[in-house]
Structure formats: C-alpha cells, structure tokens
C-alpha cells in the first residue's frame, strides 16, 4: 500500500511540476505586444483620414479591406485590430495662392474637416470620443473607447489673420503644422525650393508661434525647412514636435530630420514622431524611367495632395498607380521602419521619439501598411529588446509629456 501511495504521490508531484512548467512558458512576441497595448495609451500623431470624412462617401465605422485602395488606411475596427487607442485627425489644406480670397476658402475647408471629425465622434459616441488634452484620452481609454484628437496640417488657412489661431483652438485643434509642401506666410517648406533661398520663419510666423504658446497649441515643424526649424526652436517658449517625420541619416529625404536637428529638438524637450510613408523610411534605388514618368505626372497635375477637384485627383492617382505598376519599387519593411527608432534612440535617447504614421497621406511599409498592422511595430520593438517602459514612451509617453508641458506653460 505504501509503495502504491508513494507512486501516486510522485505522479501527482510530477503532474503539478508539469503544470507549473506550462504556466511559466513565456508569452509569444505577439502576446507580449498585445498585453502591452492593452495597458498603455497608444497614439498616432498624424493621419489624413479627415479628408475621407469630409467627402462623406466612406464610413469610418465599418471595417474596410486593407487590400483595396478605396478602403483607406484607418477605420475604427482596424484601429482596434492594430492596438491603436488615439489618432490625430489632421485637417489638411493644400497650399494655394497667398490672397485674401484664397485664405477664406482655405479656412472654410479646414473648418469643414474639423467639423467632420467632430461629427464622426458624435455618430460613433459609444466607440470614440473627442479629446483636447492627454487627460481626456486617458479617461476614454478607461471607458474602453478610442480617442480622436484634431490637428491642422498647414498654417495656410490662418492666412495673415493671427486671431484664427484661437478660432482653430476653440474648435478643438491642438497642433498646427506650420507649412506643407510649399512656402507660405508663416515659414518656408523643406520641399519648396523654387526660391533657392531658405527664408525660414517670417515675422508673422513668430507671432503665430507666440500665439500657439499662449493658447497651449502645439507647434509642429514637420514639412518645415531647416532654417524654419531652427527659427521655430529659437522663437518657441514651449517644446515642439515633428508630428510625422523620420531620421535623415537612415533615409536621406529633405522631409526627415538630420542628427543635428534631432539633438536640437531633444534640447528643446520636443519629440520626433516617426513617419510610416515608404519614401521617408528607406531610400529606393533610382529607376530613371519611373522618375521621368513621375516628374511628368507632377508637371501635368501638380502635387496630388494639393489637387482640390476630387475627379481630377482620382484621375491623377490612377495614373500614378499605373506608373507604380509599370515600374515597381521594393517597399520598406517594419524592420526598416524600426531602424529609425533605433537611430533616434542612439543619437538622443528614448525620450524623444514617437509614432506619426501619415496614414491616408501615405503608406507603403510591408507589415504595417494600414492601422491594423501597427501591432507589428511593437512586436519588432520587443524582438529588438526594447523594455516595456521604452515601448510605452514611444507609443505615447513622450508625446503626452510634450503635450502636457505645452498646456502647463500656457497657463503661467
């Protein structure tokens, strides 16, 4: 009996040991990433999805097939799939003439986009809420809801009327990207060298920066020229952001920031939000025929994002797609993307980098071509040994630190 009893006890002990061994099996990389996203507040500081909301022929509440161009890059179900809590919907207005009539049209266009975001949060109030500060996003996260923030991409709608900064702030806008692909009354752009002289931030631009500081509006220097960048740093009393830019040392594009700019941004206490647009992630090999065709396309239509007529824009995009099909390029991967996080961490430290996809203004990263793939970025960070605290900083901690500092300084 004793022998049988000992055998039974030994068997039970082995079974318990085996159970403990199973229980201690470490989670997979995906499980680890999902667990992190469940408890941290994640934010993407730039998308152009508001343009789709304005058109009214597309429902952000429905899940769209990521393989179809008409689906766009962001909808509410796919935000859940990708583990994204908060999105900055940018009211984008392409650069136009510097005239009083054009300023009015640009202002009205921007306010329509702002209102479209507001209406979206009202229509899907049980799923997403509108926030104007980090506390609002944290509250919505606790309620199990997504968060919509609003930004203004391109200061062009302000024209030369400083009072409009407050108008946009009063309507829920919390950052202003000072310029876009062309120079405007505020500052010069990184991609507009029709005038080879980089004039930087204008006198009016300095007033805009000061007004943003006064109101608690974040100043965004993505798209700004190098002189504009440094001029803004000198003018601003609050930290600034690059809402959707990457590292130029990794991908040599004028839209990306140099190492010297990264160091200056870190001294300012600001943050660079890494852009997921393929052209800013990895330098593609030169294909002369493709470059020639794209230049001819731009000469024909101008920059596609600045085409106001929907039918003309659709035609230009179809022609661009045909060029891409005829002369395909190797697309960057999530690994290429995370190289930018590695580089910023190496140059200035983990406290100055975040996420700003530019989805619906671009895409092109294999493994994260739309919001549903954003969890894969975290998986790659986990694989590279980033700590939980570092990943939390990347996904929102750093940006929200800047946001809170901007608000606090405005209240002094």
Q: What would you say this structure looks like, in words?
A:
The chain has helices spanning 2-23, 29-39, 50-55, 76-82, 100-123, 134-142, 163-170, 203-215, 226-235, 259-268, 278-281, 288-301, 310-326, 334-348, 375-383, 388-410, and strands at 43-47, 86-92, 128-130, 146-153, 173-177, 218-220, 241-242, 271-274, 353-355. Strands 1, 2, 3, 4, 5 and 6 form a six-stranded parallel sheet that branches. Strands 7-8-9 form a three-stranded parallel sheet. With 412 residues, the protein is of the alpha/beta class. The protein folds into two domains: 36-284 and 332-410, TIM Barrel; 287-329, no CATH class.
Descriptors:
TIM Barrel, six-stranded parallel β-sheet, 16 helices, 9 strands
Q: How are the SSEs placed, and which strands pair?
A:
Layout: H1 2-23, H2 29-39, E1 43-47, H3 50-55, H4 76-82, E2 86-92, H5 100-123, E3 128-130, H6 134-142, E4 146-153, H7 163-170, E5 173-177, H8 203-215, E6 218-220, H9 226-235, E7 241-242, H10 259-268, E8 271-274, H11 278-281, H12 288-301, H13 310-326, H14 334-348, E9 353-355, H15 375-383, H16 388-410
Parallel strand pairs: 1-2, 2-4, 3-4, 4-5, 5-6, 7-8, 8-9
Helix pairs in contact: 2-15, 9-10, 12-13, 14-15
Briefly characterize the structure.
With 412 residues, the chain is an alpha/beta fold.
Give me the strand/helix succession. HHEHHEHEHEHEHEHEHEHHHHEHH
Tell me roughly what share of residues is in helical segments: 40-55%
Structural class: alpha/beta
Distance N to C terminus: 82 Å
Tell me the quaternary state: single chain
